[in-house]
Amino acid sequence: MRWQDFRRSDNIEEGSAPGGGGYGFGMPVRLSGGVIVIAVIVGLLFGVNPLDMLSALMGGGGPVVQQAPAPTPSQGGQRAGVADPRRDFVSAVLGSTEDVWSKIFQEMGSRYDPPTLHLFKGAVRSACGMASEASGPFYCPGDRRVYLDTDFFDELDRRFKAPGDFAQGYVIAHEVGHHVQNLLGIMSKYDAQARTLDQRGRNTLSVRLELQADCFAGVWGHNVQAMQKLDPGDVEEGLRAASAVGDDNIQRSMQGRVVPDSFTHGSAEQRVRWFRTGFDSGDVRACNTFGARGP
After folding, report:
1. Which of 123, 124, 185, 227 has the smallest set of CB atoms within 10 Å of its CB?
2. What DSSP string runs through 100-152?
3. CB of 204 closer than 8 Å to CB of 196
4. Which residue has the higher pLDDT, 218 or 39?
5. 209, 38 contact by CB (below 8 A)
6. Alpha-helix residue ranges (DSSP H) falling in the chain
7. What is the pLDDT of residue 16?
8. What's the mean pLDDT in 26-38?
9. pLDDT at 117 over 50
């Protein structure tokens, strides 16, 4: 992927917070059922034990951040004096999602309000609570931030056997897809419906939520292809990553067996199919996973 040509986003901040509950009034954070489910299933996306994710979410307070100065632009969309290539990559991919979704929202007669992407090491406080690097990338609807420890890209390569810059771009685009759901009111509807369901019903509903985020990531990929910024093999990288983080593959590797009723993100086949749906069509309307008879 020719990400070096992308416009860099300035909606990036960096910082970490020490582990533990931190200081304050000592009051536990009350998380809505939807926020808990969303945060947990995003953790499960990358093979994190849901109990670890819930434990991380019991911290409190807002994000402790250190605003990073924006690098100076240079020709070709690149930045002069870039000290951190991964930060530059994340900024470029985020900038491409902003351009893609701004165009799509404008076509829908609306305005796209981009998320902030928070880079952290170790642990971080979000509006959804405390999270460690074990949480994996996640989106918090409470503060409209995507949280990412770029060391996860190494795990994507080694553990999930899904290397490549387009695979990494898919991870970011998936989390931005959750932000799009938030802006469109899909998350609030999901939250309200999830409250009325038992665990099995919530799992089924969360699968549809996650597959739609995959489809939205595919819509982003479609537009990147239309800009002629993909290289041979990039699409295969994205499909390989989508397959690798399927619930069946994760369960098989973690517990040696597959329990379909406990799926929260979808099988490898489903994730690949919905990413491909968004990629092939480039149409948000094709991503109606909630209206599909079977996701």
Report:
1. 185
2. HHHHHHHHTTS---PPEEEE-SSEEEETTEEEEGGG-SEEETTTTEEEE-TTH
3. no
4. 218
5. yes
6. 33-45, 50-56, 85-107, 152-158, 165-183, 186-194, 199-226, 234-244, 247-255, 268-281
7. 63
8. 38
9. yes
Instruction: Locate the domains of the chain by residue range.
Output: 3-287
What single letter denotes the amino acid at residue 91?
Answer: S
* 8 Å CB contact between 119 and 95: no
Residue type, 35: V
How far, in Å, CA of 263 to CA of 50, rounded? 12
One-letter amino acid of 44: L
C-alpha distances in angstroms, 291 versus 70, 208, 210, 231, 273?
Answer: 41, 9, 14, 33, 16
> What tens digit of pLDDT does each residue of 124-183 get?
888 888 877 666 789 999 999 999 988 888 888 888 888 899 999 999 999 999 999 999
Q: Position 205: which residue type?
A: L
CA distance 258 to 19: 33
Higher pLDDT, 51 or 165: 165
Please give the model's pTM, rounded to 2 decimal places: 0.78
Distance of CA 254 to CAs 51, 70, 139, 159, 257, Å? 14, 40, 24, 11, 8
Would you place residue 73 in the very low, low, confident or very high pLDDT band (cuts 50, 70, 90)?
Answer: very low
Q: How far apart are CA 83 and CA 204, in angstroms?
A: 43
DSSP 12: E
